[in-house]
Each structure stands twice: as C-alpha cells, then as structure tokens.
Amino acid sequence: MLKVSLPIKLTNSLRLLSVKEAKRGILFSRLLGHEAGHELSQRLPTTTFIEEPAWATVTNPQGEGLDLPLISLRDNPFFAEKRTQSASTLANEGNTHLLATVNQVCAGQQQAQVVSWVQQVAKREDISQHQAACDWIGAFMQNVIAPLCIARSDYGVVMLAHQQNILLRVDNGMPAGMMYRDCQGSGVTELALERFASVFEGEKPEYFMEGEFVNPYLAYYLIGNSLINTVATIAASGMVTEQVLYQVCREKLAALAAASPVDPSFYNYLLNSDTLHWKRNFLCFVEEHNEATLSDPTKIYREIPNSLSEGVLPDCVKPLPDGSDVAIYPLAIDQWSLKTNGVERGLLNIHETSGAISVNVATDDPLIYWSGLEHAFFALDCQQITCEHAPEFVRGCLDTEQRLTRASFLEHAPIWHQPDHKPTDEIRLEASNGLTHPSRPAKPVDVFYQRYIYGMNKVLTFRKASLSRDLECFNRWHNDPAISPVWELEGSHQDHIDYLTKMESDPHQFPVIGEFDGVPFGYFEIYWTPEDRLGPYYQAQDFDRGAHMLSANPRFRGWRYFSVWSRGIVHYCFLANAKTNNVMGEPRADNKKVLALTERIGFEHLFDFDFPHKRAAMLQCKRERFFEFYTSQAR
User: Fold this and answer.
1) pTM of structure
2) Among 587, 524, 522, which residue's Cα sits nearest to residue 556?
3) How confident is the model over 177-236, as pLDDT tens digits?
4) Catalytic residue selected from 206, 392, 586, 599
5) In CATH, which of 3.30.420.130, 2.60.120.260, 2.60.40.10, 1.10.510.40 is domain 2-305?
C-alpha cells in the first residue's frame, strides 16, 4: 500500500507526511523484529500491526527531505493472507471494517453497523439486546483495546489509535481481532528503551515520551476517540445505558491492571483519575492550528469527567473453559456477585459457624456454580465446605453430610480444562516399541487448561504450540546455551519447523506453550507413555501420561512459579481423562534438584534405569497421591 502526502487541511492538520514521521515506520519494524517485539506479537495472535518499513522522497539542494513528494510504503496484510490462506478463509475478507465507519450511520442505513451486529448476536444467541451489547463491548475490550494497552504497559510502545487507524475484524457479529495502521502515530516510553535496548543503543528517539506524560494523550485517542465513541453508538440505540457498558470496560481494565503489568501507570490513570484529556478538534480547526506542528499541543486539550473511574472493582476476574470469564464482586463481608461482562450470573454466600464453612451459590449455570465454590475454597483457604442446596451435578462429589473436600473439588470441577474427546472407534493399536494401546483422542486445538491462581493473582494458561505463532520463541529458547545441552534441540528455524511439524503428525504427543498472564514462560511435551520410548521400561497402563518440562523464561523461574505450573501440567493430565491414573517422568538420575522438586508436588522415585542416551530416574505420580498433595499447595 502507498501512503502519500496530501496538501490539504482536513479538520485540524495539514495532511503532509514528514521525514521524521516516515522514520518512525522504519523503527517500528525494528521493534517488532526484536526479541521483545516477537513476544508482543506472540501474545496477541488476533492483532496485526501493519508496518511501514520503507519510504522515499525528493531532497532539496541542502539534502533535506521534502514533505510534499514523500511516499511511505505500507505492508498490505490482505495480500499476504491471499498467499497463505485457503479460498474458504478468503471469503471472510469482508469481515474487516474501519472502526470509524461502523460507528456512524452511513448513507442508506437506518442505524450504525455496530448496532446491527449487536442485534444479530442477540437474535442468534437468543439473549436480550442488553446482554448482547454487554458481551459485544466485552469482546471489543479483549480484542481491540486490551492489545494496545498491553503494548503500552508491558513494552512501552505507544500507538495513538483513533477510529480511523483501527481496522476491526468481526466474526459472527462479534469483535474477533484488529489491525492497527499508521506508524506516524506511534511513540515509545522509558520502558521501551529498556525492553528494546539493543535497538535504541542508549539514545532516545525523536518520538520518545515519558510514560506519565503520554498517558493522558494515549487515553484520548484509544479511550476517548475509539472506545467512548463505540460505547456511545451502542448506547444511543436504547439497548443499554452508557453507564452499564462503562462498568464492563472497567471490569476488563481491572483484570489487565491485576495482571502484573511492567508499567501500571496507564491503567491507574484510566481507573483512578477523575478526569480524562479531551482534544478540542473543532476549536483547533476554527483557530486554524496545524496540530501536527503545534509547539504546545496541550493548548487544544481540556478535561472531561472520567466515566471509567466510577463503580466497584471486582476482587478477581477468572477465565472459564467456554471462552468467557467470571468477575467476583464483593457485596458484603460474606456475599459476592458473580458477573460476566457486567451481567449477573450468580450470587455467592459464605457463612462460617464454629469453624465450619457453609456455601450457597445461587445460579443455574454449572460453570458459575463451580467457580463460586472455587472462590470459597481459595479465598478463604479452607479444606472443606458444606454445600447448601447443592444441585444435581455436584452431589456425586459430596459426602453424606453434604460436605465437599478440596481434593474432591480439584479432581472433579470442570472449570479449568478442555476434556479429551473420545475417538470415534476405540480400537487397540501396536506401537513401534511393541506395546499395544487404545486409539487416542484428538489433540487440543488451542487453549486446553487455564486457571486463575489465588494468592499469586495470575492466570496460568497451557495451549497447544502453534508453528506460526511460536516458532521464534521456540527457536530462541532451544538455542539458549543454558537449555540446549539438556534438551539437545539446538538448531536453525528450519530444523525447528521440521521438529514441530513431525510432532504435529505424531498422535501420541503434542507440544505445549505455558503462559502466565499471557506471557510465554515454558515449553512442554505431553505424551501417552505406552507408545512412548518410556513405555517398555515399566508396567505401563493404557492411559498413563508423561510430560517433558522446560521453564525457559528467566522472569518465571524459582519454586514459587514451579510449584504452580508443574502442578498445573499434572492436574490437566488427570482432569482430561478420568482413566489416567498415573503421570510419569524420566529426568536424568543425577539431577538431584529436579528429583527434590518433583517429590514436593507428588512424584515418587521408583527406580533408575538406562535409556540409550542417559541414565534416568523413573518417577510416578499417582492420581490419589497427587490430589492429596495438591490440596496443601499455596493459594
């Protein structure tokens, strides 16, 4: 795509490109090509940053680039998609829309496209338009606003994303992703100087801004221009009030703020400031200012009331396996409201009498019910609760006194994982090692285990590794001198493409990426042991599983993190298939540190044996033993 200078004043600026702005595109591409940029892209799979990696202009006799003839070359993401996607996927090209367009009533329309989408969702899902509007804004926050907040708060990359620079991707009427265009409106804070140190080499670029200074201006573009206008468009239809939608936005921002951002100041500003910056575009136009060249841009801004600072914040926001989440709002010392996108889905009451804890969760939704019980167990750090008016789906886990132990809860609650899907035909197969085993279920597609960790205030996620999304990370980790001697997977990008492709075709195992609050921290391989190299070395049962584990990100090393993610991997193996009674391990026999750590999460050291390439320790974690150990974990 070509981006050219336009010698016309539109609204508040003369639309001429400048050399300094064009250089921002070059540097933006360098940031995305950096290790931290790879991590940012890896975390945001539904977000596309459209790069402007080249430009050209004519110079004057003094060698200075001229503005009028300047041309910037912008990547065309739609062309790239045509080369890599199937014809069926290309049929959805029309689902990408300029946000400014869908927020206005265009010629021939009775209402804005955003409003029509909300109505379509309500009809398809058979829910009220009020709930559909709340769900729509929730998805908009997750897929449009959150990625740009994460770029600012965890990487120091500022994108002044107003409605004309956001391309909204829609799937079945719901926001599903976004593209950001216009590197001219990008900047960096002191956090970026740290995270992308090798790019800047100690020098502040032309578009450097102190974080505290830039927050109000970013808030105008991202919140004022893009979010507030979207909220206003939906609310103007009469389906829901602005106040209700702002509470949904506040809930989502609170979850982002709780996810341990590197620089939380932007979230603090949005959630706690009484006012927000607002740009007076009409005043700028009337007074004939050229915004792009103003020496003091503060003169065209004023303060407006901040609707995002009003309302109660949730104690926590927890993901659910159906792709939604539940926010826990305190109502009283012993009562909480369970909400999704601002819509109440249940009421949690907890009573303590003589040390005994009784819990009542008023809801018809099983996921919400179990999630309420989780809050009782882990917010109060108790080992046993009495379930008042327990529904049918939980009664099988209770004793005769209607009591539920934490061990039983952890073994049976369906709120963290995607279960194995049974194969259509269960037949016995013979593996290359000579053992027979049952046919295996299909591998997970994406996220298969996700859990909010009380006490740590982080969300642990395990998802199936993706070649397109995770190759850079996989390659970097396995070429780390501290890792490659152990895993022996040092190699080129092509070597790792071949490795992951081969694993994809192997039905007995699959590769896994682990994340804390969306940040990748480790690589794992989960496998069925009967058909694995481990199978012949012990009396393998049909549904035994094992896992190879790598904690690669230095930010998430140490017992505090290990105790959470290692238990999480084993927890998934037992939850996914009720027939799995053992999870096995085979670390080096001389790795005393690993042996000591695994013992602390429920593994027993059975014996040592010899693989062709190493002497290994046979470790076994039995189902019953694991859940006994799991109940004593830190909250």
Assistant:
1) 0.93
2) 522
3) 999 998 888 999 999 999 999 999 888 998 899 999 999 999 999 999 999 999 999 999
4) 586
5) 1.10.510.40
